[in-house]
Amino acid sequence: MLAACGGTSSSSATVTATVNTLPPSTNPGAVYVFNQVVKDFEQAYPHEHIVGKNDPYDPTTYFAKLAANQLEDGVQSYFTEPPLLISRHAVADITSLAKSWPSFKDYIPSIASIVTRGDRVYGIPVNGYVLGIFYNRKLFSGAGLDPDKPPTTWEEFRGYARQLTSSKVAGFAETSTANQGGWHFTNWMYTAGGDLESSDGTKAVFNSSQGVSVLNFLKAMRFTDRSMTQQQLLTQADTLQLLATGKVAMVVMAPDQLNALQAQYQANLKDFGIGPMPQNGGNAALTGGNLWVFNPKSAPEVIKAAFDYVIYSNFNLEVVERSLAQQAAAGQAVGAPTAVLFQGAFQQQLSALYRKYATVPLENYTAFMNAQLQLRPEPRNQTQKMYATLDPVMQAILTDPKADPEALLNQAAHQFQQILDQSSSS
């Protein structure tokens, strides 16, 4: 079968594979680095050709693109997605390719489990993140707060937000649309010690006392303290812009957004810090990440070309070093704190390279990097649909002072339980 996106099955000709990770034209430095890596890859693999598309993974369109033969051969996706994609046979089995790569065995078991079912492998994890608090250090100092001591508890966070709020600046902004309200609600739940699903993934359990406490906490900041933005229904792109332009002092974000903060808004990263998620009994924060999956309709040699590119561009140590040097020279943010994927010498070598070429002010993230929090993965069953169910809950809490947290969560849990029941019976 020919690849859906232009791959060729002739063994004597160049095999073309498409990937979905071409950066947007608004970030020319990243586009340059991407093209350089592709150029180097094609020199190392002269019979394999890579075509980049600026087509970030979207869970609402993935299956339609697959059905319409419009899906790339290699797709960078999220840690949450393999259970659904595997169950619907929407990703390729890459067991032989994965196990032929020597470093696959070095994945931390919990990371490897994301892309494996039994002894079969369906993807390649490439990076991880932990959510924390981005904050404006200048606004901290101006409000009499120590920029090297971000808040560590809900009570402190709420107090900081009040102190940072002025006629021109909101202390905090939160997301509530595009599934990001549910994503951040999950993160806050972890800081409170709550769960979203039962351990077997069959029951919705977020309508708990911890869930109610999260919503009451955010509602109080919004309507009692008035320390949040009046503008609501925000996405991460919105909160990043508000942070970058000095209109908000604190937002929830992952360190991988440092590059966008610098590239899109020409922000001086020395003016910003990252702290750990403030806690209320959970001692935890949400961890997630990106992985690659492959189009099950693509020809085996096309999947191999995409796989070879993924390994080459992410894990060949010489390529990683050259890419990091290019990123640093191109003005990209290099060295942001990431979650560890591997164990042993390979991870040590990767970490050393990121430290060597770091352009970000790591001293501004000391509290984040030193935090001893449990890193809790996102719920794995129907995750994006759960987030979509929780978005309206977050929207109501942040826009309606009369919203009832318990009633909203009970209604959402009932709706999501129907989705879980339907998926288990199909």
What features would you highlight for this structure?
426 residues; alpha/beta; D-Maltodextrin-Binding Protein, domain 2; 2 domains; four-stranded mixed sheet; 17 helices; SBP; Sugar ABC transporter substrate-binding protein; Bact_solute-bd_prot1
Provide a descriptive summary of the structure in words.
By secondary structure, the protein is of the alpha/beta class. It has 2 domains: 15-129 and 289-362, D-Maltodextrin-Binding Protein, domain 2 (3-Layer(aba) Sandwich), CATH 3.40.190.10; 132-287 and 379-425, D-Maltodextrin-Binding Protein, domain 2 (3-Layer(aba) Sandwich), CATH 3.40.190. The chain has 17 helices and 12 strands. The strands form 4 sheets. Strands 3, 6, 11 and 12 form a 4-stranded mixed β-sheet that branches. A 4-stranded mixed β-sheet has the order 8-9-7-10. A two-stranded parallel sheet has the order 1-2. A hairpin with a 2-residue loop joins β4 (116-117) and β5. The radius of gyration is 22 Å and the shape is globular. Mean pLDDT is 94; it is low at 1-10.
Shape: globular
CATH-scheme architecture of the largest domain: 3-Layer(aba) Sandwich
- What structural class do helix, strand and pairing data support? alpha/beta
Give the fraction of residues assigned to helices.
40-55%
Number of domains: 2
Major sheet details: 4 strands, mixed
Distance between the termini: 28 Å
Mean of pLDDT: 94
Q: Which spans have pLDDT < 50 for at least 5 consecutive residues?
A: 1-10
Number of strands: 12
Order of helices and strands: EHEHEHHHEEEEHHEHHHEHEEHHHHEHH
CATH superfamily of the largest domain: Periplasmic binding protein-like II
What portion of residues belong to β-strands? 5-15%
Taking all Cα atoms into account, the compactness measure Rg is 22 Å
Q: Given the structure, what is the number of helices? A: 17
* CATH C-level category of the largest domain: Alpha Beta
Q: Kindly identify the CATH topology of the largest domain.
A: D-Maltodextrin-Binding Protein, domain 2
